[in-house]
Design a protein that fits this description.
- One of its GO terms (cellular component) is plasma membrane.
- One of its GO terms (molecular function) is spermidine transmembrane transporter activity.
- The chain has helices at 7-25, 32-52, 56-77, 87-109, 112-119, 131-165, and strands at residues 177-180, 188-195, 202-210, 216-219.
- The protein has a two-stranded antiparallel ribbon. It has a two-stranded antiparallel sheet with strand order 2-3.
- The radius of gyration is 27 Å and the shape is globular.
- The model is unreliable at 187-197 and 205-221 (pLDDT under 50).
- It has two domains: 12-53, no CATH class; 55-177, no CATH class.
- It is mainly alpha-helical.
Length: 221
């Protein structure tokens, strides 16, 4: 991105936006030309921000601040023991981290305007105060706090809905994992009852089918 940020990164972002919008959002039901036009419209504010930015370094600092808000909460969801961690908490934590930077800046400077400028790191990374350091501390800490609040809210909502609808509360149920047997095992899968050889009627003894050397099997943990 020569003008925006870095061409090598920006064209990849364009391709990812088109692919995600086409496959995940619209399930390939919307013509590709409309999605590309929408991506171009989304790029316009990016170009404006890049042109108004005094330096490319500031754009990198803003992206680092966003990463400091969202990535720690996202990594927590990659831990197997946090299987109950959903995308809702990641989004809420990322946005909450940015909001935490604004709150910190407002308290630190005593001005909401300066708190907003701190999100954009207008004073740079090497300011004469501790504002930049505080911003990069407030982002992940605030992100975790907002993510935990979002997690508690989601669990409470699902619990209330389960009680109202009279169904089991399953928010903490472990997911089903795909277990792959060793290549030397022969897995048998029960099938429908076989036909009686004498009269051609369904027999009482079920048949079994060998899945093969590369068979996969489902197991509930």
């Amino acid at each position: 991105m020569t003008v925006v940020l870095s061409t090598a990164a920006f064209d990849s972002l364009q391709s990812a936006m088109v692919s995600t919008a086409s496959n995940d959002l619209f399930r390939n039901k919307l013509p590709l030309i409309y999605i590309r036009v929408g991506v171009v419209l989304c790029i316009i504010p990016v170009v404006v921000v890049a042109l108004k930015s005094p330096s490319v370094l500031q754009i990198f600092l803003i992206s680092d601040l966003v990463s400091a808000s969202a990535i720690p909460v996202l990594i927590l969801g990659l831990w197997d023991k946090c299987y109950f961690w959903k995308g809702f908490e990641v989004i809420a934590g990322g946005l909450g981290g940015i909001l935490s930077v604004f709150i910190f800046g407002t308290i630190y400077y005593g001005s909401a305007y300066e708190g907003g400028r701190l999100i954009l790191l207008e004073n740079g990374l090497y300011a004469e105060d501790w504002s930049a350091f505080g911003a990069f501390v407030a982002a992940p800490v605030g992100g975790f706090i907002f993510a935990l609040i979002a997690f508690g809210s989601r669990i409470a909502y699902q619990f209330v809905i389960a009680k109202i609808q009279g169904r089991r509360f399953d928010a903490f149920d472990k997911p089903i994992k795909l277990v792959r047997r060793s290549s030397e095992e022969r897995v048998f899968r029960p099938q429908v009852p076989g036909l009686d050889e004498e009269n051609g009627k369904p027999g009482d003894t079920p048949t079994a089918v060998v899945e093969g050397r590369e068979a996969k099997w489902w197991k509930l943990w």
